[in-house]
Design brief:
The complex is a heterotrimer of chains A (about 350), B (about 575) and C (about 350).
Chain A lengths: L3 E12 L2 E12 L3 E5 L6 H9 L6 E6 L2 E2 L10 E4 L11 H5 L1 H5 L4 H14 L15 H13 L5 E5 L7 H18 L3 E5 L2 H7 L2 E6 L2 E7 H6 L4 H6 L4 E3 L1 H11 L7 E3 L4 E3 L5 E10 L3 E8 L5 E6 L10 E6 L4 E3 L8
Parallel strand pairs in A: 3-8, 3-9, 6-7, 7-8
Antiparallel strand pairs in A: 1-2, 1-4, 4-5, 9-10, 11-12, 12-18, 13-17, 14-15, 14-17, 15-16
Helix pairs in contact in A: 4-5, 5-6, 6-7
Chain B lengths: L22 H35 L8 H8 L1 H34 L5 H13 L2 H12 L14 H25 L3 H9 L4 H29 L3 H7 L6 H10 L4 H24 L22 H25 L1 E2 L2 E2 L2 H4 L14 H31 L5 H15 L6 H11 L13 H23 L3 H9 L4 H30 L4 H4 L7 H10 L5 H25 L9
Antiparallel strand pairs in B: 1-2
Helix pairs in contact in B: 1-11, 1-14, 1-16, 2-11, 3-6, 3-8, 3-12, 4-6, 4-22, 5-9, 5-12, 5-21, 5-22, 6-8, 6-9, 7-8, 8-11, 10-11, 10-16, 12-22, 14-17, 14-19, 17-19, 18-19, 19-22, 21-22
Chain C lengths: L1 H18 L22 E6 L7 H11 L2 E6 L3 H10 L8 E6 L3 H6 L3 E2 L21 E13 H6 L8 H4 L8 E4 L5 H14 L3 H10 L3 E3 L2 H8 L12 E5 L16 E18 L5 H12 L1 H11 L2 E2 L8 H6 L11 H19 L2
Parallel strand pairs in C: 1-2, 1-3, 6-7, 6-8
Antiparallel strand pairs in C: 3-9, 4-9, 5-8, 5-9, 5-10
Classes of the chains: A alpha+beta (about 350), B mainly alpha (about 575), C alpha/beta (about 350).
Chain lengths: ~350, ~575, ~350
């Protein structure tokens, strides 16, 4: 317990009489990146703000290195906040933005200038020092925001959906960069997002949040492979969740004797001449990587399937054989990664 | 930067929250910020107005509504109220009809000089009422350019002057809203086959309706409470509620009647302000996207024609005023201006006009810093994020409270000062502070309406980001709020200065005889026929107009995109 | 950056203003000191807009008494009275001049004045307000209808003679009057019509208005702007409500005759009073001012400065006055009690008739 950097202990936050965050307990070790993943309105942003000191707590504690933070105001906590649209100070240049925290702490000018240069290099924005924020693209703004946040090596970096404002390509690219930069800097970070791709791109550990409560916490891979319930599975991007008979069918086809609730990805079913499942093609659509099919199999609801592009297009109405890829399945239910 | 809805909130505006302070500290800070303005307003507004109303409803020490009700029952009072209503309505309608096409031409079309014209439009609004009165009097007088129309002491003259004043409000408010209208629905309609007029009628107009209604209600307010204009142009034949209050207080000493009319006026104004708020006028659209104006097309000709008419109507009285001030009989002369260093024929004045000008400028400086200080505090209070229903209600109440000076007769205020601020500890009647304070109160709503939108438009997350980087609240305010508020602040300073230069209603009661301001001096010169007095009045009016216009043009150079929201 | 420019601009503005000592608060009224004795003794005279006395007389007063006279002008007699009534508890000054017999009762009812115990010059007693020792008569004049005889001669028309003539269509658009609530002259004329017409006065006024009568706010507007005999460039009205003394000021240089005439059957007598304000800071100074106003030099200066007759017997009048400023032998009168009882109603009713 004491080796954790940040401990959230039974935190509850209420707004206008309504409880928005309920009894959340979390731990964050030094150097880790935790993503709190949840749909819009689940309270994750409120949680983040509560940790930053921007929301009053109804109950519970926030401990940093074992010390209770409730009496410490935001500007003394040593956490840095990064929002989805950067929130740069428009009236200051990039260099002045990045050096803001250093100036507040009255560091000598030479040191500030040096550190600003360092940070700009870290985020791959060398030479942008004198630019105005209004001239930067979305990705560049986020990188400046990150540099600014890292300037005084904060104990904890808090990120509020840092990539949602960017387009898909940039999101992927910047997500990787973010992870790499934070890794190099050894930053501990807590991120909230509603996009599981964002979480996977940046974080090491994940917590799923729903209507104010945490439903599952664990290492990325663990949560990914063992969603705690059907809703969690769907939120993680599994296309379908099956129970009972249909589940058994799928497990059988995958070569397992399990009959637990199963979650399937869209690419779990594959066109395979030697597959054990027989299905009717209902629809087919070409994508840059695969054929995406909709198939109906006896005893199962309509499901997604894939076929490699080099094969001929399966016509709707044709009968095909399908195999199940066990790596694309997940067993749903409380397991080793449960809370 | 397109606005992005923060989908991670729970549907309330919780992304804009305050640093975590305990409830008592929150209320403490709110009280601390609000206490200054509330105190000032209580002493210099509630007290005088209350004093006047008390004199009216408690004559001879006992509560007696008899006198008040008797006055309200008089047919003449009904006629006066009726005249106020219909003349204000007509003036408002005409202003809107003229203002909307003008807003279109000046804000949505691109042509050389558009920016200059936009700035020039602001000038009539802040011109002193006395100047406008003199200009119109000069225009319609028996020997003047429009003398043949026999417009002396007619409602037409009054309404024309009211339109002159207020068309700028409509142009500004509707114009800036129009800039922020999303063009795509209109384009979609056009693609579906709708002609420009139809697009305007069915798509643009409904989007603009809140802005138009808000502007119209403000214009109605200004028309219904106009004092100097009606006094000068209505002479004794036409009266509005405002001048009637003046009559009853100063001439007939009918304080119960005056009090009753003041209450009536206050209620109407409050109702109007509520209406304006309801139509979402105070909801400031924080989408900063504006569509750039485009070149004029043939279909724009009617709007351009109306605009040309409006500009001509605005230029006519002013031009005529300037012309008359440099003529004496048939000769061109600057004598009137030279005479400004004298005290007028038959000693109409105690001090020369130039000294009055110095007085005006000094008073305006004081009024401006007072109005800015108060206005800033009020703006901060009303734009702070509320953390709960109770706080929201208190803030809404404060917001309305600070708008009250708009609705109370300047006569009531001025006279109230006279009768309540005469005893220690508030023996301020002869203090040089009184006139600037009264003027600051009159300018306060304008200042708040200029600064508050800018403050409200700041994304609170900026402050949060600054706080998380280690900035204490004052530092965060300096980094985040100051850059945003500095321009509106300067603009508000300009507004306050211009308003103070031209303030007449309250000042006419409070200015000490040895320290008149220019509007008072102009009025005295007009009322004391004597050699060259009239010419001097014209010259003084031109000087005042030029000073005001200069201030407004400087303000506008600051190019705040939305100077003020109503 | 533009922000820095804005900051610099505001900084410059603030510094220049403070350097120029712009604030009005900085400057204060310097109390005037008597140069010889170093004593500061202001006495504040609250009066109406028409007050005027030769500067030389005032300087002599200040030299003789050591007081510094501060004059505060407050609109016409009616406005003055109302302001005095409203500020009874903390008076606007020490002494007041200009409340006349039509408004005095309102002031007295509200205890605006306190008693004056000086001696009045001979003849002034006749003008005392019934039974009051608080208001002191200073001057008198009669408000009468004046006609521009020169104009009528030029237009070959007979000028009107009586009040009824004024409503005659033959004299359409020729009369200009002052407003009753806004001018003591106008109010006096209203009282004259009430005295003449009794309860039918409202009908009379309706007929006057129908006959194109112009209503001005004050006497100066009516006389100097609209009255053809007053010299106004755009004047169009040959009949005006003015004073019995007015013809003395319209002497034609060539003929030595007056071009205007007062209709002496239409006159109402007006007497102006002075009084020490109750609760004044400087009652001794106030008394000195009243003594000054009653002094022979001031009484003699009244006709030329304020176009009124002195109340003191034996005061020499200017030369033209004797010839052209004829005082009426009989005036239309309304008793002070009647005025007091009905003033508000009459003013209200008059305003009702006049406004649209």
């Amino acid at each position: 317990m004491s080796s954790e950097l940040l401990t959230i202990d039974n935190l509850s936050v209420a707004y206008d009489g309504q409880v928005v965050v309920r009894d959340v307990t979390l731990e964050l070790a030094e150097g880790q990146v935790l993503a709190v993943l949840g749909p819009s309105g689940c309270g994750k942003s409120t949680l983040l703000r509560a940790i930053a000191g921007l929301e009053p707590l109804q109950s519970g504690r926030i401990l940093l290195d074992g010390r209770d933070l409730s009496a410490t105001p935001t500007h003394k906590r040593g956490f840095a906040l990064m929002f989805q649209d950067g929130q740069l100070f428009e009236h200051q240049s990039v260099a002045r933005n990045v050096g803001y925290a250093l100036r507040i702490r009255r560091r000598p000018r030479a040191e500030t200038a040096r550190r600003v240069q360092e940070l700009l290099e870290l985020v791959n924005l060398t030479g942008y020092a004198d630019r105005s924020p209004s001239t930067l693209s979305g990705g560049e703004r986020q990188r400046v925001a990150l540099a600014r946040a890292l300037a005084v090596s904060p104990r904890l970096l808090l990120l509020d959906e840092p990539l949602s404002a960017l387009d898909a390509n940039l999101r992927e690219h910047l997500g990787g960069e973010l992870r790499e930069i934070m890794g190099r800097a050894g930053t501990t970070a807590l991120m909230v997002t509603h996009d599981h791709d964002e979480a996977f791109a940046v974080a090491d550990r994940m917590a799923l949040m729903r209507t104010g409560r945490l439903v599952q916490t664990g290492e990325l891979a663990d949560v990914w492979q063992h969603p705690v319930d059907a809703e969690a599975a769907r939120f993680l991007g599994y296309a379908a969740v099956l129970t009972g008979g249909p589940a058994e069918l799928i497990w059988q086809a995958a070569g397992s004797t399990s009959y637990a609730e199963v979650a399937l990805r869209r690419s779990a079913l594959r066109l395979d001449g030697h597959g054990s499942l027989h299905g009717l093609v209902v629809g087919a659509r070409a994508t840059p990587e695969l054929w995406r099919l909709r198939v109906r199999i006896d005893g199962l609801p309509e499901l997604d399937a894939v076929a490699p592009l080099d094969l001929a297009a399966p016509a709707p109405g044709s009968q095909i054989r399908l195999a199940v890829d066990p790596t694309r399945l997940a067993r749903v239910g409380p397991g080793p990664a449960a809370i | 930067m397109p606005t992005v809805t923060t989908g991670s909130t729970t549907g309330r505006t919780s992304s804009r929250s305050e640093p975590a302070l305990s409830t008592t500290r929150r209320w403490g800070t709110l009280a601390g910020l609000a206490i200054g303005p509330v105190l000032v307003l209580s002493v210099f507004f509630l007290l005088p107005v209350g004093g006047m109303l008390a004199r009216g409803f408690w004559p001879h020490g006992r509560f007696d509504l008899g006198g008040a009700l008797e006055t309200l029952a008089r047919p003449r009072v009904h006629r006066v109220v009726w005249f106020t209503l219909w003349s204000s309505t007509v003036a408002t309608v005409v202003t809107v009809l003229l203002g909307v096409p003008t807003a279109y031409v000046l804000h949505r079309l691109r042509f050389p000089g558009a920016a200059l014209l936009r700035s020039a439009m602001l000038v009539p609004f802040v011109l002193p009422t006395v100047v406008v009165g003199v200009a119109f009097l000069q225009l319609i007088a028996a020997g003047g350019p429009l003398g043949g129309l026999h417009l002396e002491a007619t409602p037409t003259a009054i309404i024309a002057a009211l339109v002159f004043f207020n068309v700028a409000v409509v142009v500004r408010a509707v114009g800036s809203s129009w800039d922020a209208v999303d063009p795509r629905p209109g384009q979609a309609a056009a693609a579906l086959g709708a002609g420009p007029l139809r697009v305007f009628w069915t798509v643009t107009l409904p989007t603009l309706r809140p802005a138009i209604v808000a502007a119209a209600s403000v214009v109605f307010l200004f028309c219904a409470t106009a004092f100097g204009i009606v006094l000068m142009l209505g002479q004794l034949r036409y009266a509005t509620v405002e001048t009637e209050i003046y009559q009853r207080t100063t001439r007939l000493l009918d304080l119960p009647g005056a009090a009753a009319l003041s209450i009536l006026q206050l209620l109407t104004v409050t109702a109007l302000l509520l209406l304006a708020q309801r139509t979402g006028a105070s909801r400031i659209s924080s989408s900063g996207t504006t569509t750039p104006p485009r070149r004029p097309r043939r279909t724009d000709v009617p709007a351009v024609a109306v605009t040309a008419l409006v500009l001509a109507l605005l230029a006519l009285p002013l031009g005529s005023l300037v012309l008359a001030s440099v003529r004496d009989g048939d000769r061109w002369t600057l004598a009137n201006y030279r005479l400004l260093t004298s005290t007028g024929g038959k000693n109409a004045l105690l001090v020369p006009v130039t000294e009055a000008l110095a007085n005006s400028l000094r008073t305006a400086v004081d009024a401006t810093w007072m109005a800015l200080l108060l206005g800033l505090m009020v703006s901060i209070v009303v734009t702070r994020r509320s953390h709960g229903r109770a706080e929201r209600r208190v803030k809404a109440g404060l917001d309305g409270f600070f708008m009250l000076p708009l609705g109370v007769s300047a006569v009531t205020l001025g006279f109230g000062f006279l009768i309540t601020l005469d005893r220690p500890p508030l023996a301020l009647r002869d203090s040089p502070l009184l006139v600037p304070i009264a003027q600051a109160l009159v300018a306060l709503p304008l200042v708040v309406r200029t600064i508050a939108p800018a403050l409200a438009g700041i994304d609170d997350r900026l402050r949060q980001a600054a706080a998380s980087l280690g900035a204490a609240p004052w530092r965060a305010a300096l980094t985040v709020d100051l850059p945003v508020v500095i321009r509106p602040l300067l603009a508000a300073a300009g507004f306050a200065f211009a308003t103070s230069l031209g303030e007449f209603g309250a000042t006419s009661f409070l200015a000490r005889d040895e320290h008149p301001t220019v509007p008072i001096v102009i009025y005295r010169l007009i009322s004391h026929p004597g050699e060259h007095n009239y010419g001097m009045a014209l010259a003084a009016a031109v000087v005042l107009a030029v000073a005001t216009a200069l201030v407004m043009l400087v303000v506008d150079r600051l190019r705040t995109a939305r100077v003020g929201a109503w | 950056m533009h922000l820095q420019r804005a900051l610099v601009a505001s900084l410059v503005l603030v510094t220049t203003c403070s350097m120029a000592a712009c604030s009005a608060i900085g400057g204060s009224d310097e109390p005037t000191a008597n140069e010889t004795t170093g004593q500061i003794k202001d006495v504040v005279l609250v009066t109406h807009d028409s007050f005027a006395l030769p500067k030389g007389l005032i300087k002599k007063f200040e030299k003789d008494t050591g007081y510094h006279l501060v004059v505060r002008q407050n609109g016409d007699a009616g406005e003055l009275t109302n302001k005095l009534v409203l500020t009874t508890n903390s008076p606007l000054g020490d002494v007041s001049f200009g409340v006349d017999n039509t408004f005095a009762s309102r002031a007295l009812d509200n205890h605006v004045f306190e008693a004056y115990d000086g001696t009045l010059p001979a003849g002034a007693d006749a003008y005392r307000l019934e039974g009051s020792d608080q208001v002191v008569p200073i001057d008198t004049a009669s408000v009468c209808v004046n006609v521009d005889t020169a104009w009528y001669a030029a237009h070959q028309q007979t000028p009107p003679q009586t009040l009824d003539d004024l409503a005659d269509p033959a004299y359409h658009d020729q009369l200009v009057v002052e407003g009753a609530p806004t001018s003591s002259t106008g109010f006096a004329f209203l009282l004259a019509t009430i005295a003449a017409k009794g309860d039918g006065w409202q009908d009379y006024w309706t007929r006057l208005m129908a006959n194109g009568t112009k209503v001005d706010a004050g006497w100066e507007d009516a006389y100097y702007v609209d009255f053809t005999g007053g010299g106004g460039k755009a004047a169009t009205r040959p009949i005006v409500v003015s004073y019995d003394s007015s013809p003395a000021f319209t002497i034609d240089q060539a003929s030595g005759k007056s071009t205007t005439k007062a209709l002496l059957d239409t006159c109402f007598r007006q007497t102006e009073y002075a009084g020490i304000l109750a609760g004044a800071d400087n009652p001794a100074g106030a008394k000195a001012v009243i003594d000054f106003l009653l002094s022979p030099q001031v009484q003699a200066a009244l006709p030329e400065s304020m176009y009124v007759f002195p109340v003191a017997d034996g005061t020499p009048l200017p030369a033209e006055w004797a010839k052209w400023a004829v005082q009426p032998t009989s005036t239309l009168d309304v008793s002070a009690a009647d005025i007091d009882a009905n003033r508000d109603d009459w003013l209200n009713d008059w305003t009702d008739v006049i406004t649209k």
